[in-house]
Amino acid sequence: MKFCELLEKRKSIRTYTNAPIEKEKLDKIIEAAFSAPSAGNLQAYKILIVKNEKIKKALYYACLEQNSILSAQIILVFCTDKEQSAKKYGTRGENLYCLQDATIAAAYAQLEITNLGLGSVWIGAFEDKKVAEILKIESGKIPIAIIPIGYPVENEKARERIRKAKNEMVKEF
Ligand SMILES: Cc1cc2nc3c(=O)[nH]c(=O)nc-3n(C[C@H](O)[C@H](O)[C@H](O)COP(=O)(O)O)c2cc1C
Fold it and tell me: What is the count of structural domains for the chain?
């Protein structure tokens, strides 16, 4: 798929079929995340892969009962590793770089998910503490993005893309 087609195709998909996700595809998604740039190449993040139904159900409640979580075949949870970033970059690493590292990795993963014919949505509305408890995330790591994945239910593909006008968003100097 051409890059411009990929950008056009990537849309939030919130309902998935029951078809399982092939292991090779999951591996490619993780590789895509790892291919993202990161400050000092530290990759100051962790990716948790959730397949277990009981854990999914618990995450569903921690994510304000968003159905995309229940519908997903696999859920990726991206966590910052602020200690790692802080060791090299101090407060800038702790407050900014590890967040950026994790965010870019998640965005790359979403593009590869689309490239592989799968769908996903970025879930940002969740209770951090509950998610950390469910997944036994250590205190130095903070979940910042939850990405449910599955094969898209067909009718979600057709949705129109709405964006702000360029002149509202961009300023030239
Ligand atoms: C930081 C962030 C948080 C988001 N949180 C949620 C969420 O909790 N639930 C949800 O269904 N979508 C969530 N989204 C997805 C957005 O609603 C979606 O990306 C936006 O409406 C644009 O639509 P598109 O992804 O189809 O282009 C989030 C996206 C981002 C980047």
Answer: 1
